Amino acid sequence: MNSIITVSREFGSGGRELGKRLADELGFAYYDREIVTALAEQTGMDEHYLERQLESGGVVSYPVHFAQTFSQISAVPDGAVQLLSLQTKLLRELAAKGDCVIVGRAADTVLEEYAPFRLFVCAEQEAKIRRCRQRASEGEELSDREILRQMKRIDRSRAEYHDIISSRLWGDKSAYHLCVNTTDIEIKAIVPGIAAYYRLWRKAQENAG
Amino acid sequence: MNSIITVSREFGSGGRELGKRLADELGFAYYDREIVTALAEQTGMDEHYLERQLESGGVVSYPVHFAQTFSQISAVPDGAVQLLSLQTKLLRELAAKGDCVIVGRAADTVLEEYAPFRLFVCAEQEAKIRRCRQRASEGEELSDREILRQMKRIDRSRAEYHDIISSRLWGDKSAYHLCVNTTDIEIKAIVPGIAAYYRLWRKAQENAG
Hints:
2 copies of one chain form a homodimer. Chain A has 8 helices and 7 strands, in the order βαβααββαβαβααβα. Chain A has 209 residues and is an alpha/beta fold.
């Protein structure tokens, strides 16, 4: 069975760069935007629209009133379900093709049958804000408060979508095999260490199984 | 400055074994019970009593009533403060002696000036219960519920003591450089991977500083 590494990450933690470099280090395929591009081709839909829809899984939240308490209910509307179903099919096709690293898209749950190595990438808030500022387009001036609001919104979307389809909680450290903190660290420098850990973990899994 | 690795861990996650093996792998000194033994010698107090006092930092929690709400306040009573102060002095002496791995004792905060590598060891609940059962003394028959209660009590004590003296939250993944999940894995098999990650992290820190 092919070896799959799934990368879940907080917005601004550099998880995408880490995933790409890890794939290069291990000689694995890497899938992230490629998935959106392929879906855009299949559906004829706009790539940016799709990206936004899939990032959050199209999840909508609404308040409900039950037994004297208010709470939030999250659900995926019909249109989004079809998109997610296409994405799931595509993820399975990619996993069947060969060893790969997949960033986001709740791949840790969708590809559960492959027993993927589940990696989580996080960082302290200040470090994430700095990283967002560094990668902002030229002329794009956002305040710390605006970046923070965007960060929270995107992480909340990721968590909501993930937790609808998974029995594990997004971001709960016990739900991942390894959580890496990228605060004040050059990602390039630590990737070979993650690869070394992964190789030993995989070998131990094979010996146990 | 000497290199320090601090290991924080959930009860039953195998953090102590992991810390010992990591120290052996890196050729570092290892401190855990040695600290209690040294304090027992200094104070003439019983080692088991000291162990229990220091595990929780002697923290006591009591309810307070303020502005129509009840909440819990945690504090360290005077007698325990003296013990903790002796422990802090000892931790600093050990850190000054040479490179080392220290398990627990809020060493991540006490030795902040050394910029230690902060490692957290966790596992899924079922795996921790299994590990506790394996290491129980012969004839010691505990139900899952009893183990779970003990586990929660000890982890709560660790968190309370840690969070009184630290600005970081015990168990919050962003407060550690690396969180390792030992669920269904042989600790011996993955330790060289953690050592590899640590060496690269340390090198990156030195290059940055």
